[in-house]
Amino acid sequence: MLKLGVVIAAVVAACWLGVALLGGLFKLMFGLAGAVFGGLAGLAAAGVVAMVVVSLTLLALLPLLLPVLFVAGLVWLVVRAAQPRNQVPAAH
Questions:
Q1: Which of 92, 74, 70 is nearest to 82 (CA)?
Q2: Taking all residues of the chain, what is their mean pLDDT, rounded to a whole number?
Q3: How big is the chain by its Cα radius of gyration, in Å?
Q4: DSSP 8-class letter at 19
Q5: Global pTM value
Q6: Alpha carbon of 2 to those of 5, 12, 66: distances in Å?
Q7: Distance, CA of 30 to CA of 36 (rounded, Å)
Q8: What are the backbone dihedrals phi and psi of residue 84, each rounded to the nearest 5 degrees, phi first?
Q9: Torsion-angle region of residue 7: left (phi > 0), alpha (psi -120 to 50) or beta?
Q10: What is the per-residue pLDDT across 56-73, written as a single tens digit (0 to 9) for each?
Q11: Each residue of 38-60: pLDDT tens digit?
């Protein structure tokens, strides 16, 4: 009778271990899927936040950058005006 009890306990323990391993596998797979999709959603949210922050930062820096932009535009105009015009040959 003692041997039968030990065999039953071993079978129950083996079944318990198998179900626990299967449950752990499901937990691992669902955790991995959640991390992947959660990470993608987090990256998308971070991208939107970054676009908002960068645009607000550029708007805040605009008064500081306007003189530099005007000087760059003036240099561009002078360089463009100094270049010779392309003469288009007349067709005969």
A1: 74
A2: 89
A3: 36
A4: H
A5: 0.44
A6: 5, 15, 92
A7: 10
A8: -70, 145
A9: alpha
A10: 998 999 888 899 999 999
A11: 888 888 999 999 999 999 998 99
> Could you identify the residue written with the tokens 């991208």?
47
Cα distance between residue 71 and residue 85, in whole Å:
24
- Amino acid identity at 53: V
Instruction: Output the CA angle 21-26-31, nearest 5 degrees.
Output: 125
pLDDT at 15 over 70: yes
Task: Tokens for 83, please give them.
Answer: 């270049």
Give 27-85 as a DSSP string.
Answer: HHHHHHHHHHHHHHHHHHHHHHHHHHHHHHHHHHHHHHHHHHHHHHHHHHHHHHHHSPP
b vs e for 38-76, b when ≥16 Cβ sit within 10 Å of the residue's Cβ? eeeeeeeeeeeeeeeeeeeeeeeeeeeeeeeeeeeeeee
Question: Within 10 A of 7 (CB to CB), how many other CB atoms are there?
Answer: 10
